[in-house]
Amino acid sequence: MATSRSKDSLELPELPELTGPAELPELPSADCDVVTVPARQGLEAVDILRRVVGDAVGPVLHDGGCGTLGFLVPPGTAEGWDVPGSVCTETDGCGLRLAPEPVGEGADWLLPPGEVEPATDPVALREALDEAQRMIEAADGCV
Predict the structure, then answer these.
(1) How far, in Å, CA of 86 to CA of 41, rounded?
(2) Is the dihedral of CA 44, 48, 49, 54 positive or negative?
(3) pTM score
(4) Are 129 and 82 in contact (CB under 8 A)?
(5) Which residues are registered as beta bridge partners of 88?
(6) In this structure, are residues 35 and 82 in contact, taking their beta carbons and an 8 Å threshold?
């Protein structure tokens, strides 16, 4: 998947795994963007983040059916996000609020809000995604 970003919160064709606002995490305000990555890379990144930065990981949404993870990151992250294989979308508020309950058909929290930091540090996430990709490439090359 090519790197891209969207400034229009209702424009989700770049994110087929999130088919509409009902599947995005409920947020208290416009205080976050969402980085979406393939589940395999995202799960590796979660492990790396928890090992390296401990409790500095924010809520993570797993959509189940399409095999992606969505990391909540601070607002403004989408402006400079350029990590290949991921998409960072501004939420623009969407009138959503944060709730630990399941967020849509086939979607659920991997790391629920309220149990983790409000958002994942985008610098730490970028490093973890890069390391995760290298680990996946190395593992796939050993077959």
Answers:
(1) 10
(2) positive
(3) 0.73
(4) no
(5) 5, 35
(6) no
Strands 60-62 and 33-38: unpaired
Q: What is the pLDDT of residues 94-137, one digit of tens each?
A: 644 555 555 556 678 899 888 888 899 999 999 999 999 999 99
Angle at 20 between CA 19 and CA 23, to 5 degrees: 85
Task: Report CA 65 to chain centroid distance, whole Å.
Answer: 15
* Strands 4-6 vs 60-62: parallel, antiparallel or unpaired: unpaired
Write the CA distances from 61 to 46, 107, 142, integer angstroms: 11, 7, 30
Q: Which amino acid is at 23?
A: E
Segment holding 126, helix H or strand E:
helix 122-141
In angstroms, the Cα distances linking 87 to 59, 67, 101 are: 17, 14, 24
